[in-house]
Amino acid sequence: MVDILRHNFVQNAFLAGVIVASISGFVGYFVVLRGQAFACEALSHIGFAGATGAALVGASSLEGMFLFTLLAAVGMGALGKRLHNRDVEVGMLLSFVLGLGVLFLSIYTRKATGAVGVLFGSILSVTTKDVLITTGSGALILILMAVLFRPLLFASIEPEVAEARGVPVQQLSILFLILLAISVAVAVQVIGVLLVFALLVVPAAAAEHLTHRPWLAMALSVLISLTATLGGLILAFIGRWPASFYIVSLTSLFYFIALILRALRFPRRYREMPHPSREMLPPST
Amino acid sequence: MFAIFEYPFMQNALIAGSMVAIVAAVLGYFLIVRGLSFAGHALSSIGFAGAAGAVLLGVSPIYGLMVFTVTASMAISILGREVRERDVATGVIMTFALGLGVLFLSLYHGYAEQAYSILFGTIVGVSRADVVFTFLLGLILLAVIVIISRPLLFSSFDVELAETRGVPVRALGGVFLILVALAISITTQVVGILLVFALLIGPSATATRLIHQPFRAIVLSIVLGLAYTWLGILLGGNSPWPVSFFITALSFGVYLPVRLLSKGIDSKRSAAGFEKRSGADFNLASKKAYRG
Amino acid sequence: MNKHSAVRKIMRNIRTQGPIIQLEQVDIQLGGRIILQDIDLSIQPGEFVVILGPNGAGKTTFLKLLLGLIQPASGSARVLGQPPKVGSRLIGYAPQHRAFDVELPLRGRDLVGFGLDGHRWGIGLPSRSRREKIDQALKEVDGLHLADAPFGQLSGGEQQRLLIAQALLTDPRLLILDEPLANLDLAYQQDVVSLIDQVCRTRGVTILLVAHDINPLLQVADRVIYMAHGHSAIGSPDEVITESNLTQLYGSPVQVVHTLGRYFVVGAEV
What we know:
The complex is a heterotrimer of chains A (285), B (292) and C (270).
Chain A (H helix, E strand, L loop, with lengths): L7 H26 L3 H21 L3 H19 L7 H21 L4 H9 L7 H30 L1 H6 L4 H23 L4 H5 L1 H9 L3 H25 L4 H23 L20
Chain B lengths: L7 H26 L3 H20 L4 H19 L3 H25 L4 H9 L7 H30 L1 H6 L4 H23 L4 H5 L1 H9 L3 H25 L4 H19 L1 H9 L21
Helix pairs in contact in B: 1-6, 1-8, 1-10, 1-11, 2-3, 2-4, 2-5, 2-8, 3-8, 5-8, 6-8, 10-11, 10-12, 11-12
Chain C lengths: L2 H14 L4 E10 L2 E11 L4 E5 L6 H8 L7 E6 L11 E4 L13 H10 L10 H13 L15 H13 L5 E5 L7 H18 L2 E5 L12 E6 L2 E5 L1 H4 L2 H8 L4 E5 L2 E5 L4
Parallel strand pairs in C: 3-7, 3-8, 5-6, 6-7
Antiparallel strand pairs in C: 1-2, 1-4, 8-9, 10-11
């Protein structure tokens, strides 16, 4: 089993998988915290159009995706608050962009298999060049996330107070969307456009069900993401089904386990804690 | 250009497409008014798994679609109480279903066209049997909607009042979602599972921006839906490009200027102290259906 | 620091400092629209000032001016002797109540901790002194038992207490609170009011508090700023909340009934 690692494509797959999973865990934590799961979907669908469009001009899918998602992120950031609770608008935009992707696909039907890879993930055909790009992106994202962690957390939870404290809330939002765009673009290699949610949202959502400590939640998010990705890859080599399917199944499984664990630990809604030294509590409704 | 309509396959496409457009427009109106557009997204993804599974089993995809979407809609009705929980949980289930669909597709070694048609729709390849089925199912759906339209409308705009008047709000909601599930199944034939949103939500999203009276808004949605579908089939039939693309492009192309320009209507109304807004802004089922 | 030196320090601060807030003929505009005009007021250190007025009167905009988030269209504004600037550690701020997600993955102490270093770059390593400072702030608002509780699941009153603790962490001279009593049960309102009053008296912090109803604050408010329809008036509650003042402010007839130790403003939205 271990000598399978001698193959280049296997090494690439594991390397890309580890990096993407780590990024997804970190960035995903904030995606769930900020309630931007739909932005995630939007970016991945827009990326699809970018990837299929890239085939038309002879560029690689990854390059096409980077371009489109980055542009989309800046656009979304500029629209800012107005994107909040705009599921109809975003949905319409998504459909149109997907439609574009369909158009590009049909024009360049030779790349249909490439499109399938973009839709469903193609971790096993990741090239060395792609791995390098992924590694570079990963390093960039990790460093930036480390630097931005505190102010981004503050701005995500209490934007007005953060702003009053001098945190550049608006710029951070745009920057975060850009980081998200990059994460989505590299994640699509592993898991495909349709399943990006599984890496970028599900592990973080599971983690945030398990703990209320920000640090711990983020670490758990990365851990779950890594376990699912590596586990999925190993299963893909052992079995005969697509890697993305195994990865998605594992993250879903972890999510429901997290739900069960949480229900067991906090069976009731948390009630107001009685103050240790007070005898009479104010009346509650 | 119009000579193409002499071909039976184009006639089939028109008939099936028209029925689908009408059903989608009507149900889409209620989806928007009830703030459930994300549910449409989720159901279509789940349907994808069903369709792909059906293809794997050698059955026509639409049956798989129907089984999966109806089951999912019932599950959503039963489970969905807490909104935020519903967002992510639905997303998880939806993603898992997509994953299943991916699996089924990859296992299927038959004609790739089946897979392609599920994803992107091939209304111009629809068979006579399919047309009959679509037409009949569409009629049934429309009949049910007409029957429940008034209490459904009531409970969509004012849940508490409707409840006190004896409207079975929860049961209606459940029935409605089942109707949506079935509508998605037939809409998929026209535009494919990925683009259902364009035909299901697009026309009504546009109409509700322009007209705030329910009945007239629905009529406009139907008109728009039919227009997009006919034009889409016409353009798609005469060019190598897919029908689903044209429908989507038309849907979005009309929606965008309406959305941007109709802001004037809304802000004028709110400045006049007009409290209740109808249409795309009225979010009954959840204040934050899909944030972000 | 023992009580004596603490009191001396406070008295020294109050004596040597000029007004905490000084506005002269300030106009505030937003998007071309005049929100408030001709604001003239001067607030001394240690004062407990309540800002009243109907919705949309510009109270929150006024606070934003003091926080340096917007500039005055004309006139001069000085906070703590300087033109208002963003990020001043000497101002503590708790904005209008936001409905926090019940599932928010954050503990009480995490939220309070934002007040200390939420705005600094980097990850921030846990340190004992940091933890002690946060515990201290929690103790001061009587919220130590809430430290490890999930913030989203606390009651409105508890959340408000922690938000105040957060605002107090940098030892501010001025505490700005935007509608801290909104959405609170009457009993919790009294709790929060006493807490704020305590902070004001023992620490000598100047309080600027926006409220909808003066009544819970009658016992503690030194002065009242009433804002309506672009104008404002400042004075003691008895001076400001009079029929002639309010009628002039609103531009339409207002009746004020002062009975049972409470004010009832009738004929206009409060």
